[in-house]
Every structure is written in structure tokens, then in C-alpha cells.
Amino acid sequence: MLLIECPHCGPRDETEYHYGGQAGVPYPDDPSALSDREWAAYLFYRDNPAGAFTERWMHAGGCRKWFEAVRDTRTYAFESTRAAGRADGELGDGGGER
């Protein structure tokens, strides 16, 4: 069992969460000005690092709030979590116990 630390509810089982993709992807300033290729790149292309990666998660089986987590993609260990929109210095314990 993998525990993920919700910044609002505390540690919960991974089955309570939904993955929301890469965090910090800015919405285009003028989406109507994008070509089909540029729009496809915005919608479908994301970073895929081996290591620490900041992601969006939603606690669907609990408070239903979105939050950001830093997860190591090689080990699946959560390094930290924070409420969506908080400063980088306000990270909580990421949980990740098995």
C-alpha cells in the first residue's frame, strides 16, 4: 500500500487519489492564435523526467481538493505535497510509505 500525504486530510491510501498531470503548465495567452500543431503540443506534450517531478493530484475519495506533489518517477516515492497555489517553501511531508 502506498500512502500519499494530502495537505488537507493527512496520509491516505493511493486508491483515494486521481492523477492530474504535470503541474505548472501555463494556459496559452491567446489560444485562438495557436496553430493546430501548437495547440496539440499544449494539450498532449509534457515533460517525462527520470527523477523529481511536480504533479497535480486530486483527493477524489476524501476532501476532493487539488494539490501539488513532488514525486520521484523512478521510485514512485512522494517527496513533498502542498495545497494548490501555495509557495514552494510551504511543502508538507510527501508520505510515500509502503
UniProtKB/TrEMBL annotation:
It holds the Pfam family SoxD. GO terms for biological process: tetrahydrofolate metabolic process. Signal peptide: none annotated. One of its GO terms (molecular function) is sarcosine oxidase activity. This is Sarcosine oxidase subunit delta. The lineage of its organism: Bacteria, Bacillati, Actinomycetota, Actinomycetes, Micrococcales.
